[in-house]
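The protein record reproduced below.
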Amino acid sequence: MSTLSARPAPGDHDPYYAMYVRRVPAGDLGELLERQVGELEAACARHPGDAAEHRYAPGKWSVREVIQHVNDTERVFGYRLLRFARRDATPLEGFDQDLFVANGRTDRRGLDELVREFRHLRLANTSLARALDADALAWRGRMWDKTLTTLALVTLLHGHAGHHLAVLEERYRPVIG
């Protein structure tokens, strides 16, 4: 079993992903992934009621839509993680995040429900990641036209959600108060 304490080397992922990898602090990735659930819960608690519909600028996602996007990405990355962990060499296609958000029907869901969904998705993905050995973490798979290791993909789970938590804090919270 891996402690998930390593970080991917620059050659383990496309340079595009470096912005997400840099967001991940040192420490055990399993623990960091679990801790991030509480961070997302706390961030969403700062956007109660009507604030969940807030958009910091015209054409930007609402707080609820941001969380829906984080959930969609967590689900897609979880599927990719399973494929990588099982050494499936089939290139995986991307997904249209704007299409997913537009059809996510967040108007029918409360922010608390979206947060619960994230918790379940993240804990399932963390459980899978913790079960991987060094060979599985070193496996290289393809997403879109980019090659990356399973370890890089696990790291992206944290980095992507961390990016959106920072956006909530930096762009949404100052306007809401």
Summary: The two ends are 44 Å apart (CA to CA). The mean pLDDT is 93. The helical segments are 18-21, 29-45, 63-85, 97-102, 111-130, 134-138, 150-176. The CA atoms of residues 94 and 126 lie 22 Å apart.
